[in-house]
Amino acid sequence: MRMDGLREKDYRKTDDIYRVSQAVRTLARVVQLARKTIPDASLTSLLKPCCFDVIVDVAKKMSTDKDQPALNVGKTIGCLLTNVSKSKYCAALRTSDLEAQQ
Question: For the chain, what are the domain ranges?
């Protein structure tokens, strides 16, 4: 969806593609680290309120629990998950899936 949000393929810049792929890699790292706590974790399953603590722990591991802390990683993960949640909610509205909307 993010690639479609960019302009036509002829007008896309290489930096735009890298920005989208970086976001996807970050979300993949979140899921990969969450699977150490919840073995069958997926991006969809991590969007539930019961997994909030897992996401916070993953963000800590990715940002401050290393030699050179990257303090903006938590904010980046939060923004990415917010966008994923909005997209998932909109898809649930289109399909009239009340459980997914909640």
Answer: 2-101
